[in-house]
Amino acid sequence: MIYTVPTQYYFARGCAEGFTELNAFDAALLNAGVGNTNLVRMSSILPPHCEEVPPVKLPQGSLVPVAYSAISSSEAGAVITAAVAVAYPEDEDHCGLIMEYHDFGPKDVVEEKVRRMALEGMEFRGRKVKDVRSTAAEHTVRETGAAFAAVVLWN
Question: How does residue 104 score in pLDDT terms, banded at 50, 70 and 90?
Fold first, then answer.
């Protein structure tokens, strides 16, 4: 069995319109800079000592571990938001926790909820939190739209 532990990560977000909800999601991935890769959705652990880096130009077709939130809608005028948050432990030898959340509503409300989720998840683990960082993508649907937010892990 092969074990790979990512050593780098970055936040990504995007939103877009499309012919169908799947097309809108695909366009949101392109807008976020991860559209020409094969995203491997993972559960929500940030490895210890993983370093935040600026967004990486990922090789086309690569398998990329990602914790993400996405939402799409065909309800014209709806405000949709996808958000992710990372809670960082005080003890850097322990893992961090990534939480994902999406909803109909404004960015500030959705992002605040995902941050609270990350704090509670660390509390479940008995870990003191040094910091919480987050990002969110808000989109007002014109016809068919999508929003996407992610923590992209890389080596």
Answer: very high
Q: Is 43 a catalytic residue?
A: yes
Residues 6 or more apart in contact with residue 73 via CB below 8 angstroms:
21, 80, 104, 141, 144, 145, 146
pLDDT tens digits along 108-143: 999 999 999 999 999 999 999 999 999 999 999 999
Catalytic residue among 36, 38, 62, 74: 38
* Catalytic residue, candidates 100, 111, 134, 138: 100
Q: Is 120 a catalytic residue?
A: no
Q: Is the dihedral of CA 52, 62, 94, 127 positive or negative?
A: positive
pLDDT at 155: 86
Is residue 134 annotated as a catalytic residue, yes or no? no
Q: Which tokens belong to 135? A: 């990002």
Buried b (16+ CB within 10 A) or exposed e, 48-62: eebeeeeeeebeeee
Q: How many residues does the chain have?
A: 155
CB-based contact 41:150 (threshold 8 Å): no
Q: Does the domain formed by 8-51+63-154 have CATH 3.40.50.1980?
A: no
Residue 38 is a catalytic residue: yes
